[in-house]
Design brief:
It contains 5 helices and 11 strands; from the N terminus they run ββββαβββαββαβαβα. The chain has 271 residues and is of the alpha/beta class. It has a single domain, classed as Rossmann fold (3-Layer(aba) Sandwich), CATH 3.40.50.1580.
């Protein structure tokens, strides 16, 4: 990969919606150029809980990039260029299980990729690179996130599998029932390849799934209504403050030392 430089620095990165700008103290926006093109927007740099944080809206400030059109590689690589070693990736998600209710949050431990054609690796050759992804989310950050969410009295599910669909359309009833019957809990359009690209860059990554709706396959169960864009936005906006509080608390609790294996993901990945 071509080396590009920036003198800007941050410790922790956050991908999310534009509502998170208010979290960052003394925020200033900086343009970042990557070998993979421009990221979704300028990166906002500032402080949260005394730590240097970089924030990037994955869809762009004006939400101009739908899930299938996001330059995931540029977004992840921009964080790497800034020196980020941990990324928090909150996402609005649908529920595939009745017990996982709108307004709940899930700290995912597994992901299933059902996307198509996305640029999902930095290593297209000539050196073949096979990185372990058995456990997609950081083993050190996950318990910190779970503790932070529960401390705010948020109904929190300690684990769950996210199935990531291509978008921008929602699932058919048949697809949604298929995913539910497979035992998966959460459905989303953006978490892959974001989470995997972070692993390729040896950056810790944790997801917080804010459940905004029940997916269409659950329609009709005890009055459950089908997913709609309007309903998703309504629940997300109602819970946005809680997500921001949780991110602040997670960042506050993140220790300086990394004790997970994310930072050595490339060891043994090449012949």
């Amino acid at each position: 990969m071509e080396t590009m430089e920036t003198t800007e620095r941050a410790e922790i990165g956050v991908f999310g919606g534009s509502g998170f700008y208010s979290l960052i103290e003394n925020a200033r926006e900086v343009p970042i150029e990557t070998p993979f093109g421009p990221p979704s927007d300028q990166v906002a740099l500032g402080e949260i809980a005394g730590k240097k944080v970089a924030f990037l809206p994955r869809h762009g400030k004006d939400h101009r990039f739908p899930p299938q059109s996001i330059n995931y590689r540029a977004n992840a690589y921009a964080m790497k260029m800034l020196g980020v070693t941990r990324i928090i990736g909150p996402t609005a998600c649908g529920s595939l299980k009745k017990a996982v209710m709108p307004g709940d949050m899930v700290v995912a431990d597994q992901v299933v990729d059902r996307t198509m054609g996305r640029k999902d690796t930095f290593y297209d050759g000539p050196i073949t690179t096979h990185i372990s992804f058995a456990d997609p989310y950081c083993a050190q950050l996950r318990p910190i996130a779970i503790k932070a969410l529960k401390s705010l009295d948020i109904t929190t599910h300690d684990r769950g599998t996210i199935v990531v669909i291509q978008g921008p359309r929602f699932s058919t009833r048949a697809e949604s029932k298929w995913f539910s019957n497979a035992g998966w809990e959460v459905i989303n359009m953006t978490n892959y390849p974001e989470c995997y690209l972070a692993r390729e860059l040896e950056i810790c990554y944790v997801n917080i799934s804010l459940i905004t709706d029940y997916d269409v396959g659950l329609e009709g169960q005890d009055g459950i209504k089908p997913v709609s864009h309007h309903g998703v936005i309504e629940v997300f906006n109602r819970n946005n403050a809680r997500v921001k509080d949780a991110i602040y608390r997670i960042i506050d609790e993140v220790p300086a030392e990394r004790t997970c294996g994310c930072g050595s993901a490339l060891q043994g990945a090449r012949a």
